[in-house]
Specification:
It is built from 22 helices and 26 strands. It is about 30% helix and about 20% strand. Strands 9-14-13-12-10-11 form a 6-stranded mixed beta sheet, sandwiched between helices. Strand 10, helix 12 (about 365-370) and strand 11 form a beta-alpha-beta unit. It folds into 4 domains: about 10-290, Glycoside hydrolase, family 3, N-terminal domain (TIM Barrel), CATH 3.20.20; about 300-545, Glycoside hydrolase family 3 C-terminal domain (Rossmann fold, 3-Layer(aba) Sandwich); about 555-670, Immunoglobulins (Immunoglobulin-like), CATH 2.60.40.10; about 685-750, no CATH class.
């Protein structure tokens, strides 16, 4: 789209008008400038549900003053579906509700990497893996934007903690920055084309993200070709002039009394063409989100049903050793439903994403209605949801009920105060009173099914073997109770898989010694080894691995075939195999492809997810599954030359989780050699091996009688030659006996 040209000079807005264009009109809207052909654009929070605000009475904490909207499952649950088509459907529904409310820009999805399970906002994010994040978030973006509403990726970038988030510097080396923390944004922009992006609060290597020209212009615009609007997080801009020059477009919320942009335009220190650029981007966004005439109808019942389906598909069956699940409602005897979370559900996160739902179904209500064949269904709260509050009487009542029941359904999880925007957790354990309760209940009755409700990973290692089954429901959205009952009663066969690793101990995590940092800095010293990459490299036991999730049926993998493409083919590999449902129930399996790069060009993880497919099969049915692997998705970032894929031996594993590999093969994949630029700091061995610099350097050395002295002795010794060849030329030129100066070496480089 080409915007209308700027009006003639005598019709142009005043400097005051131009300065106001760079900031919001209020908390949620941009300014309308008819003289520039710009209408006002409306924004709303909405990663998992619309939160339209009243500008005169805003509800920033989500305490109930926003307009009612469908509360869909948040990203943590949607990610566990491993089903991009389903996530796209949720995005379409979100887009329809936004459009019906006159919203142009939905502030989501959030796609930060889950560096630590302690991050208080992990419920809003998809995964610890950037490629998987991009596949799922990209589907959400496509769904939202199919309705003429802009998706706004956030928070760009490295906003992986809530502690000190407004100023902390995420200190990250270039390879992990590119390969882990920026990669999800890059791939989502490449594959889904979001129309807007939000900059983060934090600093990156010392510079605020909203004022970082390398991040917002060099990488985002020039390298990735992003053509949408960049908006700041609310209150994240500290120098609005520097932010505009760095590549930020819109400062939110409104700051009409701030004169800094006006003054810089007036004295010429701020290039007025930046305002023209902003006007063009606002016009482009306005055209993309043009809704047409009249509101669109919303089918709230259909959206509620979609919420129910998405939550049940995102449920992860962690543990079912006693085969207590699914529950047969006709033959379950006396059922004890224990846990305050059964009647006071935790179905969404806290903070700016909190939605005022159109309705809420509790698990206690749903189970009472649907366990019609049970001899009795009785409830005990067991604990209070107030953090750190124990009640011995409640615990005693619950244990007594468990001892007189045939089956216990125990609801455990994290109260809202444990994880929220603006605060991080300090532990990956459940509240101590809940851990004590599960042990006491299991001692009274081993037939215990645990239903978990939490937005971030919790370890079950301390009590897992005391209970018969565990289902991770995460945060389900407003259809909570029906979604839970669907899975527990077997009306839905669980097919969710973990999009993150669940550790045994917090001390095992890669960020343990540097989260949340100190003195305004958090060092990402683990490099690229985040999540399962870390646990695999360290051979650490985990509670549950990345990709894990059981089923009420079983699946067999067979007949692996790997087609290797030519080096210039955008598709590097085509994986195919046969999947068979060997059980008695219909179900879905997520076939996961992991690739281990064994080329040795860089330090590589053991394996990385590179493709997946969710396959639904009837009992006894088989299907040939094909999963293509893009060549660009096999690349790694070399700090000296950028993204590379050199090819070589690749270990391909196909399975049901990162640690349940069913089929495996090693193939040689063609690529392109890495050509690392030669400098005076390159090792002597690299100089001598270079096809041009090598002969030139040898000619000088030979003409001057060769290398003598101690360096010559080192080179002539089988034991010490590697030490000399590994020394930089800038260093060896300082040794007596090396007959070439550093200036002469630089002259050779100049001739390359």
């Amino acid at each position: 789209m080409t915007p209308d040209p700027m009006p003639p000079d005598d019709a142009r807005p005043t400097p005051d008008d131009l300065a106001l264009l760079t900031t919001g009109a209020d908390y949620w809207s941009t300014r309308a400038f008819p003289g520039l052909g710009l209408r006002s654009l409306r924004m709303s929070d909405g990663p998992h549900g619309l939160r339209v605000q009243d500008d005169d009475n805003p509800d920033h904490l989500g305490l109930g003053r926003s307009l009612p909207a469908t509360c869909f499952p948040p990203a943590v649950t949607l990610a566990s579906t491993w089903d991009p088509d389903l996530v796209r459907s949720v995005g379409e529904a979100l887009g329809r509700e936004a459009r019906a409310r006159g919203v142009d820009v939905l502030l989501g999805p959030g796609i930060e990497i889950k560096r630590s399970p302690l991050c208080g906002r992990n419920f809003e994010y998809y995964s610890e893996d950037p490629l998987f994040t991009a596949r799922m978030a990209g589907a959400m973006v496509q769904g939202i934007q199919s309705q003429g509403v802009a998706a706004c990726l956030k928070h760009f970038a490295c906003n992986t903690q809530e502690t000190d988030r407004l100023r902390v510097s995420a200190d990250v080396d270039e390879r992990p920055l590119r390969e882990i923390y920026l990669r999800g944004f890059e791939l989502t922009i490449r594959d889904a084309g979001p129309w807007a992006l939000m900059s983060a609060y934090n600093r990156i290597n010392g510079l605020h993200a909203s004022q970082n020209p390398w991040l917002l212009t060099e990488v985002l615009r020039r390298e990735w070709g992003f053509d949408g609007l960049v908006v700041s997080d609310w209150g994240a801009v500290h120098d609005p002039v520097a932010a505009l020059e760095a590549g930020l477009d819109l400062r939110m919320p409104g700051q009409p009394t701030d004169r800094r942009v006006h003054d810089a335009l007036a004295d010429g220190s701020l290039d007025a063409s930046l305002i023209d650029r902003l006007a063009e981007r606002l016009a482009r966004l306005a055209e993309r989100t043009a809704h047409g005439a009249g509101p669109i109808p919303i089918d709230e019942d259909a959206h509620h049903r979609l919420t129910r389906r998405a939550a049940s598909q995102g449920a992860v069956l962690l543990h079912n050793d006693a085969n207590l699940l699914p529950i047969d409602p006709r033959r379950c005897g006396r059922v004890a439903v224990i846990g305050e979370l059964a009647r006071t559900p935790r179905y969404q996160g806290a903070g700016s994403s909190a939605v005022n739902p159109t309705r809420v179904i509790t698990a206690w209500d749903a189970l009472q209605q649907r366990l019609t064949g049970a001899a009795s269904v009785t409830f005990a709260p067991g604990y209070r949801l107030t953090a750190g509050t124990s009640d011995d009487d409640l615990g005693t009542e619950a244990v007594t009920l468990a001892g007189t029941s045939d089956l216990v359904v125990l609801f455990l999880g994290l109260p809202a105060a444990y994880e929220a925007e603006g605060r991080d957790r300090t532990t990956i354990e459940l509240p101590s009173e809940q851990v004590a309760l599960v042990r006491a209940v299991a001692a009274a009755n081993p037939r215990v099914v645990v239903a978990l409700s939490n937005g971030s990973a919790v370890s079950t290692a301390a009590w897992r073997n005391d209970v018969g089954a565990i289902v991770e429901f995460w945060l389900t959205g407003q259809a909570h109770g029906d979604s839970v009952a669907d899975v527990l009663l077997g009306e839905v066969n669980p097919s969710g898989k973990l999009p993150e690793t669940v550790p045994v101990r917090l001390e095992d995590t890669s960020s343990y010694l540097d989260f949340p940092g100190e003195a305004g800095h958090v060092r990402h010293g683990e490099g690229i080894f985040v999540g399962y990459r870390w646990f695999d490299a360290r051979r650490l036991e985990v509670d549950y691995p990345f990709g894990h999730g059981l089923s009420y049926t079983s699946f067999a993998y067979s007949d692996l075939a790997i087609a290797v493409r030519d080096a210039d083919d955008p598709e590097a590999l085509a994986i195919s195999l046969t999947l068979t449902n060997t059980g008695r129930r219909p179900g879905a399996e997520v076939v996961q492809v992991y690739v281990g790069d064994r080329s040795g060009v860089l330090l590589m993880p053991e394996r990385e997810i590179r493709g997946f497919a969710k396959v639904h099969l009837a009992p006894g049915a088989s299907q040939r599954v094909e999963i293509p692997i893009r060549r660009a998705d096999l690349e790694h970032y070399h700090p000296e030359v950028g993204w590379v894929f050199t090819g070589g031996p690749m270990e391909v594993g196909v399975g049901s989780s990162s640690r349940d590999i069913r089929l495996q093969a090693t193939v040689e994949v063609p690529g392109h050699p890495v050509e690392i630029p030669l400098t005076v700091w390159s090792p002597l061995g690299d100089w001598l091996a270079h096809p041009v610099a090598g002969p030139a350097l040898r000619a000088l050395i030979d003409a001057r009688g060769g290398i003598t002295g101690r360096l010559g002795d080192l080179l002539s010794s089988e034991v010490s030659a590697d030490s000399a060849l590994g020394s930089p030329v800038a260093s060896v030129t300082q040794f007596p006996g090396f007959p070439v100066s550093i200036e002469e070496a630089e002259e050779i480089l100049d001739r390359l």
